Amino acid sequence: MTVPITTASKGSKILGITSIIGFAVLILLAFFVTDPDIRFHPETGEEFGQFDAVRLLYLHVPMAIVTYLAFVICAIASAGYLIKRTFWWDSMAHAAGEVGTLTCALVLITGSIWGRPVWNTWWEWGDVRLMSTLILFLLFLGYLALRGAFVSPQRAARPAAIVALIAVLDIPLINRSVEWWENRTLHQKSTLSELKIEDLTLFTLMLGILVSVLVMSWLILHRFRVAWLEHMEFEQGVKSAIEERRHIDNKEQ
Amino acid sequence: MKRLFADIGLITSKDLKIELRSRVLTNQVAPFALMILVLFGIALDADQQSLRNFASGLFWISVLLCALMAISRSMTIERDDEALVGLNLSGVDPIAIFLGKTCAIAIQLLVLEIFLGVGIILLYRSEVEDLWLLVATGLFACIAVSALGTIFGFLASGLGVRETLLPILLLPLLLPVLIGATRAFDDALGVAAINGWNWFAFVAGLTVLLTGVGAGANYLLAEN
Q1: Confidence band (pLDDT; 50, 70, 90) for A63?
Q2: At residue A196, does pLDDT exceed 80?
């Protein structure tokens, strides 16, 4: 069996092109078409709000949702590996874990950039949601470090699956933190579930979520295929080595 | 159940006997703990008020750093000559191995906590206002650290990079314990006007949760 030389397929190319077009439309809407958040005080008439900083939320919020999604996929695939013990589940967990870590880093970075003008700080130590998100990021850095520490991916699979299942327990905590510790967070309660936004703002945010899910799926798909190719190459290498050894043994006899 | 407790006792006493004979705790970990307290004192420019204010945080950071050493040591003795494989094949219930090792590490950490506690009283001039809060928080937090440390020690055992990997895996999960225990100690040492018992309840809840998670992970790790 020959190892394919690319991770692309017709489906993944369509997914990729759709993601890029969607992302371009999102940038256009978020940064040029939608209005800045400017409100007026009813009594003094003074301007207040998030102004242009609100545009970053069209990226930050979808990326946070995608981070949760990627880590949940990682946890489900990890559980799948522990039950089925097949390479497919392990590769899926690895791919989702890697993509989730990347998006989690982007969530922290975009959040920090947004926080500077709006909260007047890059980082707030007392904010439970910020801290629990940072913990999640560090946990998955550990997950990837653990995977990288093993020479053989097969040996890394079970410990990594256990770490992923433990790490994902942080997600409900992050999600609920604004309700449980409402006095210890600068984050507002869910705007989406209570539908406090409407029209173009809501549409752009929904588009952001859709595009982010597409990009995540695209990245996971390619990362999964890279892992699959590495696995096939490793297997072929082992087979060739055995064949070569047999050949040498036969010659010696 | 009786057999389980006997096995836990057996594993705990085995680990503690090895520690008593090798004296790693007294000859290496305790001096390291003292060194951390001294370094913090120097780094904070020996400002007595700052040291008193930050004593709780410095205490728990010292405990966590020493715990990493104790856990790493506990796993090293099992890795040498494949002792862990022998232990697993001996018929001892995996949960007894997990709990036994957790108890052994917890006892060592408790000794270290007492040592460090005396250290912050003498060096940082901390004053104890609520001894029971201090004792209860110290006990529960060290069980949480030991339980998670044991499971992550098992996960990383057999790897050449165990010493560097263990902190990356373990410390993020222990951050909530660190926060809760520090706040409770702040109240017990009279440096913050907060209800330390609420924070103790938070630490106790986390301890139960993390020990349960550790036991579950141990089950998954042990089954073939």
Answers
A1: very high
A2: no
Smallest CA–CA distance, residue B17 to chain A, in Å, is: 29
Burial (CB count <10 Å: 0-12, 13-18, 19+), residue B67: buried
Considering only CA atoms, give the Rg of chain B. Answer: 18
Residue labelled with tokens 């752009």: A204
Q: Do B213 and A135 touch (CB under 8 A)?
A: no
CA atoms within 13 A on the CB side of B12: 18
Residues 6+ apart with CB under 8 A from A53: A37, A114, A117, A118
Residues of chain B below pLDDT 50: none
Please state, in angstroms and as integers, the Cα–Cα distance from residue B214 to each residue in A23, A227, B121, following that order.
42, 29, 33
Burial (0-12, 13-18, 19+ Cβ within 10 Å), A46:
exposed
Find chain B residues with C-beta within 8 A of A158's C-beta: 220-221
In this prediction, residue A128 carries a pLDDT of 87
Domain ranges of chain B: 2-222
Three-state DSSP state, B89? helix
Residue of A nearest to B160 (CA): A149
pLDDT at A64 over 70: yes
Q: Which residues, numbered 127 to 146 in chain A, qualify as contacts with chain B under a Cβ-Cβ cut-off of 8 Å?
A: 131, 135, 138-139, 141-142, 145-146
Q: What is the pLDDT of residue A219?
A: 96
Q: Given an 8 Å threshold on Cβ–Cβ distance, is A82 in contact with B220?
A: yes
- State the first-to-last Cα distance of chain A, in angstroms, to the nearest integer: 29
Per-residue pLDDT tens digits for B82-138: 777 788 788 888 889 899 999 999 999 999 999 999 999 999 989 999 999 999 999
Chain B residue at shortest CA distance from A138: B172
* CB-count burial class (<10 Å; 0-12, 13-18, 19+) for B44: middle
Quickly list DSSP for B123-146.
HS----S-HHHHHHHHHHHHHHHH
Q: Which of A130, A144, A146 to mutate to test the interface with B (most CBs of B within 10 A)?
A: A146
Instruction: Report in angstroms the alpha-carbon separations of B112 from A142, B60, B143.
Output: 27, 11, 13
